[in-house]
Each structure stands twice: as C-alpha cells, then as structure tokens.
Amino acid sequence: MSNLQTAPRQSLWTRVTNPKFIMVYATIGLFLLIYLFGAIPYGDVGFTTLRTFTTLFVDNAYYGISAIGMTMVLITGGIDLSVGAVASLTGMLIAYGTTVMGIHPLICMGFALIVGVGLGLLMGWVIHYLNVPPFITTLTGMFLARGVCSLISRESIEINHPLIDDLASWKIYFMQLKDGEWVKIKPSAYINLNVIIFFVMLLIGIYLLQRTRFGRNIYAIGGSEQSAKLMGLPVGRTKVLVYGFNGLCSVLAGITYALYVKSGWNLSLQGAELDVITCAVIGGTLLTGGVGYMIGTLFGVMLKGLIPALITFNGNLLSWWGKIATGLLLLLFICIQRIVVKTTDRRKGKKRAPVKS
Amino acid sequence: MSTVRKATKKSSGLGQLMIPLVALGILVLFNLIRDPSFFSIEMATNNSGNQVLSGNLISIIDSASGLAIIAMGMTLVTAACGGQDISVGAVGAIAGAFFVKIANTDNGITGGSAILGFIVCVLGTIAFMMFNGTLVAVFKIQPMIATLILFSCGRSIAYWINGSATPQLTSPIIDALGKTIPGIPIPTPIFAVILMAILLALVFKFTNLRLYTQSVGINQGAARLNGINPTAIKLLSFVILGVCVAVAAVIGVSRLHQLNHKTLLVDIEMDAILAVAIGGNNLGGGKFRLLGSVLGAYIIQMLTTTLYSMSVAPVNVKAYKAIVIIIIVVAGSPVIKNKISMLITRIKAGKLQASAAKGVE
C-alpha cells in the first residue's frame, strides 16, 4: 500500500479546500441549513435534542447501510436496483427460518449472506462478462429476489426468537454525570445495534475506497473503464467484487430492517432501491461514475431522514409533502452537481489554454 | 438523403427482431403444447350486454396496450438520450389525475368533458415530460437521475391535483374507452395501440425524425456538426413519450373505473424498459425499432398471462419472469451474439471445406 502515498503530501488546507469536495460540502451545508430551519421553530418542542438527532440514525440505518454499497456501485458507473428486494428476501429468510422452520437465526443470517453476496457476484459477472447493461441485470435480479421472497411466503411473518429480541432491544443510552452519578440524559437518547453496524460499514467503506488498491480501481473504472482496462487494472474482478460487496450491504440492510420491524414480508422495502440511490446522489455521487465519497453519502442519508422528521414535528403537513420535498432536494442537488462539473471543466480548460497557444 | 435512410434501414433490419420473434415463437409453441385451447377465441357477452371477443389471446393484446404504447415512447427517448425515463408510471398517475379532474364534472362525464379532459391531460403530461426533457437535453443530466425526481414525487403531485381522493368513474364513455365500444367486439385499447403506431409510423415516414433521433443517439457531436439540433430532438422525444403516457393513463383509468394515484400504471417503467431491451434496442441509444419494443411489450404480457393460466400466484410471477427475461437478455447480449455468429461461420466453413474435399476427390 505504500506506493499509494508516493505523491508529495499536501498541506491540510489545500487538501480540505480541494474543489473535488465541493459536492460533499454542499450536502453538509444544506443539512446544517435545514437543521437550523427546523431548530428555530421547533427548538422548544425538542427538535434540537440529542434524541431527535440519534433517531435520524436509528430510523434510517438500513438505508444508510445499503447506500454505502450503492455508492461504490455508482462510482464504478453502474447501478444496482436489486438492493430493496435482496434486503426484503433477507428479512423473509430470517423470519421463515426462525419462526416456521425453527432454525437458529444466526444460521438463517449466514444463509441469507451467502444468497445475497452470491446474487451480487452473479450479477456483477453477468454485467461484466456477458456485457448486459447493469440496469437490466439488476432489474431482473430484483424481480428474482422479490419473486423468491413471495414463493417462500406471501404473508407477513413475525420473528419470535429470544436472540432477535435481545439484538433488537439492545441499546446504548447516552449518559451524563449528574451529582456524581451516571444517569440517562433527558429525553433519553440511544443508539442501537443497527446504528453500530451502519457506522462499522461506513468505516469499512471509507477504508476500502480511500486506502486500498481496490478503491483506487473503483475510481479508475468509474473515470474511464476503457483506460482502466488499458492500464492493466483488474476491471472485471473489481466490478464483480463491487457488486458482491453491494450484495453484502443489502443483506446487512435486510438484517437491520428485520431487527427494526421484527418481521419478514415479501412486499417490504418496495421502492427502497431508488431511495437509496437518492441518498447517494444527494451525497454528491455522480451517476456517470468516478466521483463520490462515503462522507457525502452519510450526510445524504441524514438529510433524507431529516425531512420526514421535520414533517412529524410540524404535525399539520401530510406525509406526501415529504416526497415532494425530497424531489425538490434532488432537483437542487442535481443542478448543483451540474454547475460544479461545468465550472471545474471550465477551470481545467483555462489551465490548459496557455499550453495550447 | 434517401441512400442514407436506406442504409440505416438495412442495417437495423430483421437481425434486431430475431430475438423477440424467437422468444415469442417459443412462448406460443410452449402454450400450444401445454394447452391448445389457450388460443381459442370466442364471442361472449360482457357485463354491459355487448358481444365481445374473449379469450387469452385477446386479453393479452388488450392488457398489454398501455405497456406497448409507453414502450414506443420509451424507445424514442432511449434512442435519442441513451438513457431511460423511470418516471413514466408516476407521470402517468399525474396524467390520470388531470384527466379525471377535468372530465369528471358535476354532471358526470359527458363527451365534451372527456375530450377536454383528454386534451388537458395530454398537455399537462407534455408539460411534466418537458421538465424531464429540459433537465436531460438542456442541463445534460443523466436521464435516469433527472427522471428520478418525478419518479419520487410524481404520485404525490397526482394526489395533490386530485385533492387526495380516489374518485370512482361510472359512465358509458369510460366503458367505451377502457373496455369496448358497443357494437365493436374488439377492446378499445387495442385500437389505441394501432392508432399510436400508425401515427408514429406516419411521422417517421414523412419526416426525418427517425434518422435525426438515431444520429443524435449515436454521436451527438457529429449530429450537431451536421446541422441537427440535439436539444430539440431530445425534447421532442420526451414530448412524444408524454403523449404516449397520457394515452396509456387514460386507458388505465378507464379500465379500472377509478383513479388510484398509488396503483395507476405502477411498476410500468420497469416493464417498459424491459420491453425496449427485449425488442433488441440498444439501451445506450442510437438505432431503434419501434416494432421490437411493441413485440417486447406483448412478450412480457404473454409471459405473465401464461404464468397466470398455469395458476401461478400473481406475486410469484416475478420470479419466473426474471428467469425468462434474463435468458432473453443474455441471448441478446453482444458476447453471446458474437459466439453464435462465430459458430455459424465455423459450421459454414466446415461445410465449404467438406465440399471442397469432395471436389478434389
């Protein structure tokens, strides 16, 4: 890995102000803006409490986990529409396995992991080696996973297992020192296993993308697959592995969702794939590939969770306003992306101009 | 100009239609072997006392109508922009909301209000599609992302237009639009498909739209240098898609006798894109055959109906559908195509060698 760091180390300031991070900053800025926008009218009813903030993560952990894998896929220039279906299938496998067949949930989870990662690898293989467009391949993957899910059961199955109950109710409360004693802060704020899985996956994602050869290959493929191939990079292997990793993320998202709702249903998480893509796009990942950061995706997920929270705090707005707001947010971000890409292109053009003359 | 057009026609000839035709043939053959009565068509009296044709074949062609119409528009967008519009289902819900809002007056649905409603519906849908088109053509945003906006909020807008209601529509006009016109035994949606197909065929016949669309899809820069305005062509493809979606939405509303903004044309975007892909069209843009996409739509519907008639539950259909579709798509992928053509040339070469050897003897 040492050869990755042969480039002269830039000062922290130049690295932070690098224009390639503009999109991430835009996301963070907008998140803060909307948070402030909510904090002023609803500050006195508890919008600014730690509880609201941690609920953002507790309620959206499964989206976040899936968005991590999706970010990688999008950076390679691909897309994966099967994530919601695979997560739903995972939930169904766990529910059916534990409740109906009486198998230990860990074995079910292991089996789901094999199925999900296997499907991901298979789709990656079809996309790269058979040259079928990712959109079509993963769409059929989605149909397949959804269909298998309905084949297993068409009814919602409750999960009743002590281990699942324990895992689902396991919480870390935020404590504070009061009169020399540790007590729960009020209103009580906590994070659960799902949030921890999310952050662990986020760290893994950041490490893979920024610190490994695998990550560099992902960016290279997204920049130009042809060039990456000509440079001798393992394009096929990387692409297959990226889809496999996304399968892993989908399964983990399914497990966290199962812990969140404690049931499996063949129609759960319908349309989640596009929500996940929305999270990644709001976070600054370009669908054309080559650009994207995990930190941006983190804030994308938070931003996406903030809107329903705001609507809940308002109380008068109907939930469909949330969808319209998300749509507007997406529009805003797409426009910002466009402007950023254009201005950086122009800047590059200006730099090149004197060389030409 | 004429030579150029001939060349494009020739190169996108029957070869592209091979896979959908073969797939359709296999499906028909499978049904023939499984149950010959699958294709029987008979006259029956429907609920409103009209003589209508009934049978699986009619129901396949009838229920694929909306999909076939949208697939036509989707083909154009795919060809011109090199991407797909995933908002067609959501925009269809908006179109249905427009139609019902105008057509459903206090006095029920009259002929005049239905026509006015249809016109408003088409114009409104075109306006929403122009939003997509502007993002794609002017701001050069990837089609899938640009249309993701309306995909995610379109149904909410439909909800808002119609004031959060799911109105029931009962009128002979709605019956005529969604089912059959009294006296004509063939369901009306089938006529809508034929009408749209003829309309588009006439447009292609008398204008250069086909050539222009293909050249924009293949190489936008080259098209611009040749005096074609890519922005206008892309916008036009979205306008045509808008008309298609409006027609499909009106059919959908009329068929169900109600407007449900949540279920109207739900999931149709995926099926429409699949129809385009099965029809052998390149999803990256460029050359296209409308006939292929229409065939693709009928293949998808036929597959679904076949599975239903084999008493597969509706929710389980997706699994089988996925397997069949992946086979069709893989068979149509360039890698497999190359392998097959190599195999054919090898067999031919072998035959030639054999005959040459005979000649020597």
What is the CATH T-level topology of chain A?
Answer: ABC transporter involved in vitamin B12 uptake, BtuC
Describe the main β-sheet of chain B briefly.
2 strands, antiparallel
Number of domains of chain B: 1
Provide the gyration radius of chain A in Å. 22 Å
Helix-strand string of chain B: HHEEHHHHHHHHHHHHHH
Q: Based on CA inertia axes, which overall geometry of chain A fits? A: globular
Q: Percent of residues of chain B in helical segments?
A: over 70%
What's the number of helices of chain B?
16
| CATH class identity of chain B | Mainly Alpha
Any low-confidence stretches of chain B, pLDDT <50, length ≥5? 1-12
Q: Tell me the number of strands of chain B.
A: 2
The tally of helices of chain A reads: 14
What is the CATH architecture descriptor of chain B? Orthogonal Bundle
Residue fraction in strands of chain A: 5-15%
CATH architecture of chain A: Orthogonal Bundle
How much helix, percentage-wise, in residues of chain A? over 70%
Uncertain regions spanning at least 5 consecutive residues of chain A: 352-357
Number of strands of chain A: 6
Largest interface pair: A-B, 45 and 46 residues
Can you describe what's shown?
The complex is a heterodimer of chains A (357) and B (361). Chain A is mostly helical. Chain A has a single domain (20-33, 48-338), classed as ABC transporter involved in vitamin B12 uptake, BtuC (Orthogonal Bundle). Chain A has helices at 12-16, 22-42, 50-75, 83-100, 105-129, 134-152, 162-169, 193-211, 213-223, 225-230, 235-261, 272-282, 294-314, 320-356, and strands spanning 157-158, 171-173, 175-178, 181-184, 190-192, 263-264. In chain A, the strands form three sheets. Chain A has a two-stranded antiparallel ribbon. In chain A, strands 2-5 form a two-stranded antiparallel sheet. Chain A has a two-stranded antiparallel ribbon with strand order 3-4. The model of chain B is unreliable at 1-12 (pLDDT under 50). Chain B is built from 16 helices and two strands. In chain B, 72% of the residues lie in helices and 2% in strands. Chain B has one domain (2-311): Orthogonal Bundle (ABC transporter involved in vitamin B12 uptake, BtuC), CATH 1.10.3470. By secondary structure, chain B is an all-alpha fold. Chain B has a two-stranded antiparallel ribbon with strand order 1-2. Chain B starts with a helix and ends with a helix. At the A-B interface, helix 6, helix 12 and helix 14 of A face helix 7, helix 13, helix 15 and helix 16 of B.
